[in-house]
Amino acid sequence: EGDHVVEGQELCIVEAMKMQNILQSARFGVIGKCIGVVGSSVQAYEIILEFSSEDQGEEEENVTNDNR
User: Fold this and answer.
1) Strand-pair partners of 16
2) Is residue 59 pLDDT above 50, yes or no?
């Protein structure tokens, strides 16, 4: 939380069916909240982390696991 990230930066890796899926930042921003827990299971479209609304005065955005 609080880390500054740039577009394309790796945020986390989600493993599904022995394949590693790298989730990358779609924009510049600041990580506001990490919701995912290392080693836990996630469902499709589950929020893993959120961008802070403090950077650039934008609304919060979410990073979800939408890989199928």
Assistant:
1) 19
2) no
